[in-house]
Design brief:
- The protein is α/β, with parallel strands linked by helices.
- The protein folds into 2 domains: 280 residues, Nitrilase/N-carbamoyl-D-aminoacid amidohydrolase (4-Layer Sandwich), CATH 3.60.110; 215 residues, Rossmann fold (3-Layer(aba) Sandwich), CATH 3.40.50.620.
- Helices cover 39% and strands 18% of the residues.
- The chain contains 18 helices and 20 strands.
- The strands form 3 sheets. It has an 8-stranded mixed sheet with strand order 6-7-5-4-3-2-1-14. It has a 7-stranded mixed sheet with strand order 13-12-11-10-9-8-15, with helices on one face.
- Strand 1, helix 1 and strand 2 form a beta-alpha-beta unit.
């Protein structure tokens, strides 16, 4: 993967008031971090001294800090990467709470902090003269704020109080291109403090579409009026990727795909803030990068929250968005019924569940749902039985309309041999079912509710003007891998006999049931889990084919063969590019996740796109 950088947060054992000892501890962690491949390592605020109080202005302490900084820079000369160290930095007649950026044996720049609570005695950054400063035998620029760049990675420096500021410095850094914010902190211990920091750091990283690293003092700084716990944490794009607490000389790291975050910012129209003044840029030679996919641990099911509580919340929100949107559409169209085809499969079951929830929201009896099962040449008793029992339990009106005779008549009309199991054989059934639903909707003043999901829409796995068409598509924003958790969520609050049906539907292999005998979709396309993985990373981060395949190997390689993953990627690319014509004329649907394939408000692409580049 190109431009993959490892970033680290270090928690050195702190010896208050002993710069030499602190420099030694910092150097040891920096050596470990660089040996681990880190391009940038950040340490806590005032890591060279701890908080000094009235000793800040003492010339003896200042001289010791300056000497320790010089020795640290010299000792780090051969260590690749950047080290960010917090120091009390004499500037004019005052002292700044500053971060020194060390690389190649020299300080290449410094950034000062605006004092916060407990920072009495420090000169505010806003009161400092910007310009070059002579210190520890080196000359380097001192800024109130700046960004550092090697041409690909751009990072900025923040301090502990940043996430809670009305206008956080990190926003200005991101507006100037920083994809990583490294915060020097102290992180006082206390009830609820760790949770508050997690929320703040994750929130900042999500808001900025960036990495946010924060390192705090370890327990050796405790013993006075405040305790410290060595809390360090890293979040990337809203997700906590690494954390340590209650450990000394600890080191955590994360791998940052810089190009992916830049793509995501462009996709979210985060091209800059019009009121953000330009910051100084300190250029430097290229930093070390990580080979391959590094330590990225891609989730095999990125659409499905791993945490159980988050998954429950996600499921509830999906049903809420579906039902709110459908209720509004029904009200606006003055429709009195919801008409949908039920097959006993995942998609139609979720659509039925959304219709039931819509009835509750509107105060309608659930018999306003007209659930139609239309058995054809491949319909099995298992799926049909599950569909009908579920619809009856939820109080829907159930109609059974076999399509065998109608489709055979159609075959005779067009001169098709009914023993020829081809695309005509399959699509004729899909279009016959759509005609029945549309005509029934006209008869009962209803809307045909589409059942196709986001994964099928991505692959174009639908019959044009057949199941591709509806009057409103409630599932179009829900990927296949999220539907099973949604039905399991419904099963958890259902009577056991209904929960058993829902679980059996989840266990039933995905099939269009258009041919006699066994017909499994995933044996044709590949696992939907693979396709959803590719869809997520392709649309969200703009990954290249090489990157996505390597990520898939990292996610599935211990279970699936690389050859199968390559075949699935080829299928995804071919179908995703070629099937845009179906998405361009798809029915309206609620946007449920950030990723949307709605051609009007989500993904836009010409129908005649040449897919050669992606094969």
């Amino acid at each position: 993967m190109k431009n993959l950088y490892r970033l680290a947060a270090a928690v050195p054992s702190l010896t208050p008031g002993n710069p030499a000892a602190n420099a030694a501890a910092i150097l040891a962690l920096f050596q470990r971090s660089a040996a681990d491949g880190a391009a940038v390592t950040v340490t806590p605020e005032l890591a060279m001294t701890g908080r000094c109080g009235d000793l800040l202005g003492n010339r003896h302490l200042q001289a010791a800090v300056e000497d320790a900084v010089g020795r640290l820079a010299a000792d780090a000369r051969e260590i690749p990467g950047v080290l960010i160290v917090g120091v009390p930095l004499p500037v004019g007649d005052g002292v700044a709470n500053a971060a020194l950026v060390i690389r190649g044996g020299a300080v290449i720049g410094a950034v000062a902090k605006e004092p916060g609570p407990g920072d009495d005695g420090f000169t505010p950054a806003s009161a400092l003269p910007e310009g070059h400063l002579a210190y520890a035998g080196m000359t380097f620029p001192l800024y109130r704020s700046a960004v550092f760049s090697d041409g690909a990675l751009v990072f900025g420096i923040a301090f502990e109080d940043e996430p809670w500021a009305l206008v956080p410095r990190a926003r200005r850094l991101a507006a100037n291109g920083a994809t990583a914010v490294l915060a020097l902190a102290t992180h006082p211990d206390g009830v609820g403090q760790n949770g508050a920091r997690r929320r703040a750091v994750c929130g900042q990283s999500e808001c900025l579409t960036a990495a946010y690293l924060a390192a705090g003092w370890d327990k050796t700084a405790s013993g006075g009026e405040t305790a410290y716990c060595g809390h360090a944490l890293i979040a990337v794009d809203g997700g906590l990727t690494a954390e340590t607490c209650d450990n000394s000389n600890a080191l955590i790291a994360t791998d940052l795909p810089v190009d992916w975050l830049k793509y995501r910012r462009r996709a979210r129209r985060m091209t800059g803030l019009t009121d953000a003044a330009a910051l100084p840029v300190i250029a430097m030679p290229p930093l070390p990068t990580v080979a391959g996919t590094g330590r990225l641990k891609p989730d095999p099911e990125p659409f499905v929250p791993v945490d159980e509580a988050a998954r429950r919340e996600c499921c509830a929100e999906v049903l809420r968005v579906q039902s709110v949107s459908l209720a509004q559409r029904l009200t606006a169209c003055r429709s009195e019924r919801m008409v949908l085809g039920i097959s006993g499969g995942l998609d139609s079951t979720l659509a039925l569940l959304a219709c039931v929830e819509t009835c509750r929201r509107l105060g309608w009896p659930t018999d306003r749902i007209l659930a139609v099962t239309m058995p054809g040449f491949g319909t099995t008793g298992r799926t049909r039985g599950n569909a009908e029992r579920l619809a009856e339990f939820w109080g829907a009106e159930v109609r059974v309309i076999p399509i065998h005779d109608a489709v055979k008549q159609h075959f005779r009309d067009i001169g098709h041999d009914e023993t020829q199991y081809d695309v005509v054989y399959e699509n004729s059934q899909a279009r016959e079912r759509t005609q029945i639903l549309m005509d029934l909707a006209n008869a009962v003043n209803g809307l045909v509710i589409g059942t196709g999901d986001l994964s099928e829409i991505a692959l174009g796995w639908s019959t044009f003007n057949g199941d591709h068409m509806a009057m409103y598509s409630v599932n179009a924003g829900v990927p296949k891998t999220l539907i099973r958790p949604l039905l399991e969520h419904a099963a958890a609050s259902s009577p056991e006999n209904i929960a058993a049906i829902l679980r059996d539907i989840c266990a039933t292999p995905v099939s269009p049931e258009l041919l006699p005998g066994v017909q499994h979709t995933e044996s044709i396309l590949g696992h939907y889990e693979w396709h959803d993985f590719y869809l997520y990373h392709f649309l969200k981060y703009g990954g290249t084919p090489e990157e996505l395949l390597e990520l898939a190997v990292a996610a599935f390689g211990d279970r699936d063969d690389r050859a199968d993953l390559e075949k699935a990627w080829a299928t995804f690319c071919r179908r995703f590019i070629s099937q845009q014509f179906k998405r361009n004329c798809a029915p309206e649907a609620p946007r449920i996740l950030e990723i949307s394939l709605n051609a009007r408000s989500g993904w836009q692409m010409p129908s005649l796109m040449d897919g050669t580049l992606w094969r």
